Amino acid sequence: MSLINKRQFLPDLDFEFFSQDNDSKKRRTIDLNILTHLFRLDDQIETTESENKSQPINKQKTETESDIESETPWFTILDEDEEDSYQPPKLLPFPSLDKEGKITLCLDLDQTLISSSFTENKNYDFSVELSDQGKNWKVFVTKRPYLDEFLQECSQMFEVVVFTASLSYYANSILDYLDPENELISHRLFRESCSNFKDGYLKDLSILGREMDRVAIVDDTPFAYSRNERNAIPAKRFFVQDNNPKFVNWRNDRELLKILQILKKIQHANNVPNVLGKVKKKMHLTKN
Hints:
Pfam family, one: NIF
CATH architecture of the largest domain: 3-Layer(aba) Sandwich
Helix content: 25-40%
Region (Disordered): 47-66
CATH class of the largest domain: Alpha Beta
Domain FCP1 homology: 98-266
Protein name: Scp1-like small phosphatase 4-related
Strand content: 15-25%
CATH superfamily of the largest domain: HAD superfamily/HAD-like
Number of strands: 12
InterPro entries: Dullard_phosphatase, FCP1_dom, HAD-like_sf, HAD_sf, TIM50
């Protein structure tokens, strides 16, 4: 995990002090467990100094000094070659042989592919039973029109990844229904793969482990792809609710068909952001 990512665990520390030496301009990598050891070590030194004030000088070798001699260093200094070769952990494994060379397509789940509710409605396609921490409940799911055809075609053109901010036990139950044989979706990423901010969950495509020129994302939430807007295909939000006049025409939704036409234009692109930019200008694609 990079030093930048550790800010969320120790937000009050001055990381600029740790991350850069004004003379050498070399970065330091500091593990959280090492920082904790440093603070503990500081306390031990203060305590030991107080206890040893009354002892003869030649007997004042402290336990802390022994710890320092036996413990491994609390920091690691990377030389220039190591700095250049360091890579943060990636979210995805190497692509399978049948997906090698294909563009990676990330698809959001809720309000992009499906609409779900804890309240039963007359329009749901299937339901899933969930259990967590001793609680049980049922979720009613409505598939966006043309979803099955959309997933079938996408699976032939791309390496498909469902990248959702939902919890895994919820999303897996739905995806197991949509893709019971694991033939359409290559990978599943859940909330723990997102970055949590006050404005919502952000999906950072740069840590997928794929070339950014060969990645696209379809999502109804602009903040989710705000770090990689040039790779994004905005989807209009899909929501189904009984007796709500705002959603009575949901059966006429053609959003997935429109998105599919865009995807066909980028499936062989060497630079997805460039091609998407041209396509979105022509189609006047909006974010919501």
